Amino acid sequence: MAKPNPKGPVKTVDIVCARCKTKLYRYRKGGKGALVKCFKERISEDFTETPCTCPGCGQVFAREALIRGTPAYKVIGGKVLMK
Question: Is residue 36 part of a domain?
Fold first, then answer.
């Protein structure tokens, strides 16, 4: 399978916790669909202390996974919002 584009998109989105609205990531997202996964190499700013856990409320919002051979976070539906 093909790997994600290493250069990545230019457009960045803020990813926040759906429960407490704490900022989690600034992410270079491609396309206009829903946020299903976050490739680690596309995260431009990481505001979390422990991976996949909200620093504000302690909610687990994603799971670590390998997608197409690249490390990523699989987002649990409804736990995060994009701005």
Answer: yes
